[in-house]
Amino acid sequence: MNNSLRRLDLNLLVTLNALLAEHNVTRAAMRLHLSQPTVSVQLARLREVFGDPLLLPGPRGMRPTARADELREPLRQALEALERAVAPSSPFDPARAGQTWRIAASDYGESTILSPALAGLRSAAPGTRLAILELLPPMLARQAEQADIDLAFHISAEAPPSLQRRPLFTERYVLAGRVGHPRLKRRPTLAQFCKLDHVIVSPDGGGFHGVTDTALAELGMTRRVALSVPHFLFLASVLTSTDLVAMVPSRLVRDNDALQVVEPPLEVPGFEMLMLWHERVHRDPAHQWLREHIVKSL
DNA sequence: CACGCCTATAAAGTGTAATG
DNA sequence: CATTACACTTTATAGGCGTG
User: Fold this and answer.
1) Is A53 helix (H, G, I), strand (E, B) or coil?
2) Which residues form the HTH lysR-type domain (predicted)?
3) How far is the CA of A63 from the C1' of C17 (A)?
4) Is the pLDDT of residue A88 over 70?
5) A3-86 CATH, one of 2.40.50.140, 3.40.50.720, 1.10.287.3610, 1.10.10.10
6) For residue A50, how many other CB atoms are within 10 A of its CB?
7) Strand C at less than 7 A from CB of A237
8) Nucleotide in closest CA–C1' contact with A38
9) What pLDDT shows up at residue A16?
10) Which nucleotides of strand B are protein-proximal, with an atom < 7 A from a CB?
11) CATH fourth-level superfamily of A97-169+273-297
């Protein structure tokens, strides 16, 4: 910022603005809730600063000089902009809002969190836009910090501690396969479970070992993981078109009529889903509204 | 010319914040 | 905690200017 402003008491500009609007020191004083002599003194200092008389006592009140006329509009607009910037943020009005929110989510987050929130968001805040970005866990903290994203959904185990958080729900794993799958008529035993061919979702790519395999190992058992996919959404079509089965988060399959869902024969630890955001937007009414809307839509 | 409005300025008191 | 500096206040005064 230009150094010339540091030489200037910016409050003097407020007085100047009032003076240029009123062309009258006394009325400007009333508008500013100051006494008339105070404003008179301020005018004297303004004259000093600008090296111009600004307002000259004339036949009909104070007449502005050319310099004063030149200052009036830009000054008024600048002060209005300042006032808006400094004003305590007004309550968010979703119906008239037009901002763009950037949200990082996995396909799991898209279908379990965003999908339920979207219709309500469209009707409550039709002027807003949503940009869904791929969830990149190692980048989360940095993206949030640099305002690349406003909000993210991620599991609590991997959530960057630097971000603000709100738990959305805890998730558990269920066993899913196609409707009519011969081994899923009822809940399989542990031994039957281990003989099935499994699909695993490995967001990091290519892994064949997951929490289920860890839980099995503690029981001295193993299963056969025949397919590893990177996304949850591809999983659904794989399950309906093959006899493969998968341990999946329950929310992902609860409304899917094409899938048979049963309780697994072993205890597999679930996970907690968090909504994450940066301190930067923590108190912003618009962001608060969005977060509240998402929580209510679950 | 008197009246009422205005500005400019001075003097003295008050409240607050920085400073040692 | 007392001192100091500062900005603002109120009050008083002088004087300019248009109006009836």
Assistant:
1) coil
2) 8-65
3) 14
4) no
5) 1.10.10.10
6) 16
7) no
8) C8
9) 81
10) 5-11
11) Periplasmic binding protein-like II (3.40.190.10)
Mean pLDDT confidence for A154-177 = 95
Question: pLDDT-derived band of residue A105, with 50, 70 and 90 as boundaries?
Answer: very high
Distance from residue A279's CA to nucleotide B10's C1', rounded to whole Å: 53
- Select the more confidently predicted residue: A274 or A147: A274
- Report the DSSP pairing between strands A197-201 and A224-229: parallel
Could you give the C-alpha distances from A238 to A164, A172, A241, A258, in angstroms and in order?
36, 21, 5, 11
Protein fold of A173-269 = D-Maltodextrin-Binding Protein; domain 2 (3.40.190)
Question: Burial of A157 by CB count in 10 Å (0-12 exposed, 13-18 middle, 19+ buried)?
Answer: exposed
- Closest-CA residue to A280 (of A126, A147, A134): A147
Reading the block at residue A289, the tokens are 């509204």
